[in-house]
């Protein structure tokens, strides 16, 4: 679900010509991997949704000595209106949206210096 939401966000941002999932026949030039490190509700002090994601952007090129373009980690804690499951879901969605907004800004910075695909 997070992968699909991220792909839709990136397609809407139009930083890349297209973003596709792993189950396709395209050979990507750039690969974005995301590791979800935290995705839970914290009810110890006050109800909060906690989401933490680390992104790894790499270039797929045999001639590139360091394929890593950038790694970025984001953590968001969103206060919940109550401790219901519905409030937690809304908080997690808001946290993910805020993370993707921040990462979009970083991707835009990376895009100015990305290596060009072969043949371009």
Number of domains: 1
CATH topology tier name: Rossmann fold
The separation of the N and C termini measures 33 Å
What value does the average pLDDT take? Answer: 87
Binned, the helix content reads 25-40%
> What is the annotated CATH architecture?
3-Layer(aba) Sandwich
CATH class term: Alpha Beta
Sheet with the most strands: spatial strand order: 1-2-3
Q: Output the CATH homologous superfamily.
A: ABC-type transport auxiliary lipoprotein component
What structural class do the secondary elements suggest?
A: alpha+beta
Helix count? 2
| Number of DSSP strand runs | 3
Along the chain, the helix and strand elements come as HEEEH
Q: In terms of topology, how is this protein built?
A:
Layout: H1 2-13, E1 30-42, E2 48-59, E3 68-79, H2 85-111
Antiparallel strand pairs: 1-2, 2-3
Describe this structure in words.
- By secondary structure, the protein is an alpha+beta fold.
- It has a single domain, classed as 3-Layer(aba) Sandwich (Rossmann fold).
- The protein has helices at 2-13, 85-111, and strands at residues 30-42, 48-59, 68-79.
- β1 (30-42) and β2 form a beta hairpin.
- The mean pLDDT is 87.
Summary of the model, kept short:
The protein has two helices and three strands. It has 120 residues and is of the alpha+beta class. Strands 1-2-3 form a three-stranded antiparallel β-sheet, with helices on one face.
